[in-house]
Amino acid sequence: MTRDTIDRVIDWFAKTKIPIVDLTGGAPEMISDFCYLVERVKALQPARHVVDRCNLTILLEPGYEDLAEFLARHKVEIVASMPCYSPQNVNAQRGEGVFDGSIKALQLLNAFGFGVDVDLPLHLVYNPVGAFLPPPQDELEVDYKRELKKHFGIVFNKLYTITNLPIGRFASFLRHNGNLEEYTDLLISAFNPCTIDGLMCRNTISIGWRGEVYDCDFNQQLGMQWENGRPLFLWDIDPDKIANREIMTGDHCFGCTAGAGSSCCGALVV
User: Fold this and answer.
1) What are phi and psi of 159, to 5 degrees?
2) 29 phi and psi, to 5 degrees?
3) Angle at 41 between CA 223 and CA 34, to 5 degrees
């Protein structure tokens, strides 16, 4: 994302009452103007909140030594993926050595007050490692807190469980193993109408790196961009006229409505 795009996005955002900017990736910290983006949002009045969906191991990379301190100084909320509290499962999903790096990064964040200071929330994210729904979020959170505290001295605030949607690499994995249709049927059969009111697409819009607009991060991955005779960018849109627009949906949406539901903030039904 270029600085020009950042400025156009933040200028639009400043005219709204939207309270939160939620930065995700990949590793959003790797864009050259990441710190500039955070500083611009934090300078707005009224005050706004920033969430960084942090790639934990980036905190240990050369050139990013000051990042944890920067995030703490600007009171950025951190949400970080941690597929499991055991090294075998994490390394199997993310690659050899990722678990150890994630543990070191979480210990570093704790040292700066994340997960400890009320102004520095630190949340972890669990995704299933296969073609099944997440277990109950509250129960799994207890296990995570016990094991990470006992073995590594790590503390955090909340655990979010997020269902894997059958798109992108996960869809390719399912297709390769002949499980795509079975998993899609699982999501559809687990549809829970109680999740509808809490779906993130009902109160969030997703902005691409060029400023294009989507209903959610998953639609962005699928290229389901807003259009009105042509592709729409954020600065093309009147923020007062986007309420009640029809959300673009597909079969992948059953992933967010299955079981306890799934959103960027975890389970929708507890």
Assistant:
1) -110, 130
2) -65, -15
3) 65
1-161 architecture in CATH? Answer: Alpha-Beta Barrel (3.20)
CB 157 within 8 A of CB 122: yes
Total length of the chain: 270
Q: What is the pLDDT of residues 9-33, one digit of tens each?
A: 999 999 999 999 999 988 999 999 9
pLDDT for residue 242: 85
Parse the chain into domains and list their residue ranges: 1-161, 164-270
Residue 77 and residue 50 in contact, taking contact as beta carbons nearer than 8 Å: yes
**Integer Cα distance of 62 and 98 in angstroms:** 16
**E strands in 30-121:** 49-54, 77-81
Q: How many CB atoms lie within 10 A of CB 90?
A: 23
Tokens describing residue 194: 């109680």
Please say whether the beta carbons of 214 and 224 come within 8 A: yes
Beta bridge partners of 79: 53, 123
Supply 60's token pair. Answer: 């240990």
Above 70 in pLDDT, residue 163? yes
Q: Residue 90's pLDDT band (boundaries 50, 70, 90)?
A: low
